[in-house]
Amino acid sequence: MGALAAAALASSGAAAFPHVVREGETLAQIAERTYGRVQMEQVLVAANALDAGAGVPIMPGLRLEIPALGHHRVTAGETWANLAERLLGAADRSDVLALSNDTMPWIEPTDGQEIIVPYNLRYVVGQHDTLLTIAYRFLGKRDKAWMLDKYNHLKQDPLRRGMVILVPLTDLPLTTQGKAEAASAGALVRSEGAGRAREAQRRVDAELPQLASDVRSGRYIDAVARANRLLGYGDLARVQIATVHRQLLEAYVALDATGLAETACAAWRDADPTARLDPIELSPKIVHACTSSADLHLLRPPPPDPGPPTPADAGSAR
User: Which H helix or E strand runs over 169?
Assistant: First the structure.
């Protein structure tokens, strides 16, 4: 199997967590309790190399791996390619990683953004399996067969019984009970908060257009309230922090809240070092709020050197 076998040994997602089967439990019960869907039993079967039908009891004491999503907080300089190589086992899986995070492969992730990391399900190909049937079974759509072909470097070669392929799963929402079990196993810590930052960032992205509309329409009090609420979500990406503070700056300037405007400008420029105080794009009041007293000192010419004191100066000093 060569490269395919090596790919199958790639990490299946650090957020997966163990479950020890209790007396009387079935895979269907575990799937419903963990994911809220009995149909997820097939994922448990594949993840644990089991051959069990729906509702078939399994042996107490058996240790199962429960698939779950991983999460990663992006740092400056990271790209979809180097993240895919480190988190999914190959740089050319970057398109899947980007699409899994509701963006396009040519739009790189931003500093501070929290992304989901698909779970690499190792699936043993059966006698009648095709990429179409596997894509439909685990990804919900037959037209995602191309993704499996590229993800596993198959180059459109036909599947053979006994082959192992990786299926990148992203639809793995945990129930409250599932999250509690994952937390007790330490999986939520390993997955960097189980997506709390990602959820906050998605909420902010959804509200940023309304924040901009508040400012454009002169609803400055509403804009200030909304912006501070968004910042209160915490764990935002740097570009989001910069955008919110930029809108806050304009609202505070309009409200003549000079001190708050200066603070918002400092936070904006700290989050976005490339921010420019362009007097063509920004009003004089905004530029003034963003220009500290130290900056003004640098812009003013130094006072003339008075030279050595004259006798008259010395006498007046006495």
Answer: strand 164-169
List of residues 6+ apart from 155 with CB closer than 8 A: 149
Q: Of 37-51, 171-185, 239-253, 299-313, where does mean pLDDT reach its minimum?
A: 299-313
Confirm whether pTM is higher than 0.85: no
The residue range of the domain holding 142 is: 9-190
* Residues 182 and 68: beta-carbon distance below 8 Å: yes
257 and 114, same domain (yes or no): no
Let me know: does 43 contact 31? Beta carbons within 8 Å.
yes
> Beta-carbon neighbour count of residue 269 at 10 Å?
18
pLDDT digits (tens, 9 = 90+) for 118-152: 999 999 898 889 999 999 999 999 999 999 999 99
Looking at the fold, whether 68 and 128 belong to one and the same domain comes out as yes
Residues 6+ apart with CB under 8 A from 201: 113, 114, 235, 236, 237, 240
